[in-house]
Amino acid sequence: MDYKESCPSVSIPSSDEHREKKKRFTVYKVLVSMGRSEWFVFRRYAEFDKLYNTLKKQFPAMALKIPAKRIFGDNFDPDFIKQRRAGLNEFIQNLVRYPELYNHPDVRAFLQMDSPKHQSDPSEDEDERSTQKLHSTSQNINLGPSGNPHAKPTDFDFLKVIGKGSFGKVLLAKRKLDGKFYAVKVLQKKIVLNRKEQKHIMAERNVLLKNVKHPFLVGLHYSFQTTEKLYFVLDFVNGGELFFHLQRERSFPEHRARFYAAEIASALGYLHSIKIVYRDLKPENILLDSVGHVVLTDFGLCKEGIAISDTTTTFCGTPEYLAPEVIRKQPYDNTVDWWCLGAVLYEMLYGLPPFYCRDVAEMYDNILHKPLSLRPGVSLTAWSILEELLEKDRQNRLGAKEDFLD
Ligand code: ADP
Ligand code: MG
What we know:
alpha+beta, 5-stranded antiparallel beta sheet, 12 helices, binds magnesium ion
């Protein structure tokens, strides 16, 4: 099985390139030298590619180049990585040569040029950089009832990075006041705003304005912001990702899979009852707490903007449990989460996601068109619930009528 890696603790890359745990991205460490300062930035290929495409459009005459995308084959081949890194380095050297390029806001953000400390380590977020004001990014965001106007980053000692997602990172932090540990999720306003502009913030805010509280959903204690960043102070969930455990054991016995599926279903039913569609239930968002209960993270924050194109273009990303309607970019509703529940249950029982294929395009095709093939080894009940949850037509899917009650 060569699908994803999982590891309970994720550390910042210390070597030149680093396979970010569990998501199988290679993070490239690139040296930036400008005048007398030098620093490193850590970026994924997809991020280079995005910047490159932006610049190519705006500066067609500059003949910028980055190494080509690799459509087939293993992205972790050392020779391939080496070559790619050289090409990416060259790209960066070109950027810092021309003021019209390095003064572009996207380039400045990409190269972290406005950071006084030009380095990338977990403490990067700890000190308050916002004291040096940054142009238009300093937009105040309504954090709803969770917003705590008195909280600030220096209330915490940030110990290490425990997770990295599409919008920011999650740090293990110790609150100075009482020595308690929390997981603090830090999002750059700039990135959040850049992605889908206001719509995004709205999506996020609508969730923040609701009082979301459930035993199987990560607890949000409070949130705060600086001019540049949003901080969410969450329960620190320390049992590791469910799929870390699954990967070690290949598959779970049915009674164990049933237990997790029931807890996930209960959390999803609750979210639906307060009009939140989780939408991208995926392995790395399912954590276990210290006694083995499921805790879903990452609900509601920044969902809308994550277009499927992100997934299709970053070939090496974790394939999500995409429902057919999501792949087709059709409207979706609560039933999308019941599909995902089916996918999680399937993976727990069989060790691989349904319709799995190394080639993501083919996998999408299978999700859309291939009938579900169920292998023996599970009970008839499990078999039938998988068939009903992984029903391609959302109107006939289990949960379409009365949601959780079904
Ligand atoms: P993103 O929206 O960027 O995907 P997540 O909220 O999913 O961010 O967090 C990224 C990763 O950080 C998760 O996959 C998980 O491994 C870890 N993580 C998130 N929240 C917590 C938490 N409360 N306790 C422990 N680890 C967490
Ligand atoms: Mg996530």
